[in-house]
């Protein structure tokens, strides 16, 4: 699962703090433990011996972990996950990953954590997510009013720039192949759409901005082992 973070630093400050396992773990607790194959696996506490916790995992295996390595599982989490991870009862690594994986299964590739957007690369075209109807919907909508989306982040950044009269930035960050370049194209498309439709030579501003992208990629991108069209860090400046 490859993920990227998209944030608008100048709208407000958001700090994410991954919660440590401070909740009491007792016999019968539903928990997450690390797994060499699946990364994390859920299970139930069968016995506690001092610092040692004996857990029966969902695959029926018995494992023994130290208390700090055992994380509580929210058994009342909605089956389809939550669209903003600040709503999670436990904001720890297995909780966050489980939520993202659940949403990804439902083709929900975007999830908020406060005003930061997390995108999971779908590795398939999802045209319904980016069509002109979607752009119309997100125009002027407050962050969180509609489903998490890259257009919502662009809209907030654009509105903050217009209303406060200050330049703004959108930071797109993630490992190689996570989808930064594709996301930036969507951001450019949406910002060009917001910026107006008057164009020269019969072409809209949106078309002209998007047509400039292959030229920028020709200078800024390179083929790597992970990605045929690789670009390093991307910061979009709006001014
Ligand atoms: N939102 C998306 N919808 C469909 N496919 C996507 C999306 N995001 C990424 N992809 C797929 O993943 C591939 C890699 O994405 P992209 O080039 O944007 O990654 P990157 O983070 O910019 O990588 P690098 O850091 O190497 O430049 C794309 O060529 C595309 O096939």
Automatic annotation (TrEMBL):
<dbReference type="InterPro" id="IPR036961">
    <property type="entry name" value="Kinesin_motor_dom_sf"/>
</dbReference>
<dbReference type="Pfam" id="PF02736">
    <property type="entry name" value="Myosin_N"/>
</dbReference>
<keyword id="KW-0009">Actin-binding</keyword>
<protein>
    <recommendedName>
        <fullName>Myosin</fullName>
    </recommendedName>
</protein>
<dbReference type="GO" id="GO:0051015">
    <property type="term" value="F:actin filament binding"/>
</dbReference>
<dbReference type="GO" id="GO:0005516">
    <property type="term" value="F:calmodulin binding"/>
</dbReference>
<keyword id="KW-0547">Nucleotide-binding</keyword>
<dbReference type="GO" id="GO:0005737">
    <property type="term" value="C:cytoplasm"/>
</dbReference>
<keyword id="KW-0505">Motor protein</keyword>
<dbReference type="GO" id="GO:0007015">
    <property type="term" value="P:actin filament organization"/>
</dbReference>
<dbReference type="InterPro" id="IPR004009">
    <property type="entry name" value="SH3_Myosin"/>
</dbReference>
<comment type="similarity">
    <text>Belongs to the TRAFAC class myosin-kinesin ATPase superfamily. Myosin family.</text>
</comment>
<dbReference type="Pfam" id="PF00063">
    <property type="entry name" value="Myosin_head"/>
</dbReference>
<keyword id="KW-0067">ATP-binding</keyword>
<dbReference type="InterPro" id="IPR027417">
    <property type="entry name" value="P-loop_NTPase"/>
</dbReference>
<feature type="domain" description="Myosin motor">
    <location>
        <begin position="80"/>
        <end position="239"/>
    </location>
</feature>
<dbReference type="GO" id="GO:0016459">
    <property type="term" value="C:myosin complex"/>
</dbReference>
<feature type="domain" description="Myosin N-terminal SH3-like">
    <location>
        <begin position="26"/>
        <end position="75"/>
    </location>
</feature>
<dbReference type="GO" id="GO:0005524">
    <property type="term" value="F:ATP binding"/>
</dbReference>
<dbReference type="GO" id="GO:0000146">
    <property type="term" value="F:microfilament motor activity"/>
</dbReference>
<feature type="binding site">
    <location>
        <begin position="174"/>
        <end position="181"/>
    </location>
    <ligand>
        <name>ATP</name>
    </ligand>
</feature>
<keyword id="KW-0518">Myosin</keyword>
<keyword id="KW-0112">Calmodulin-binding</keyword>
<dbReference type="InterPro" id="IPR001609">
    <property type="entry name" value="Myosin_head_motor_dom-like"/>
</dbReference>
<dbReference type="GO" id="GO:0016020">
    <property type="term" value="C:membrane"/>
</dbReference>
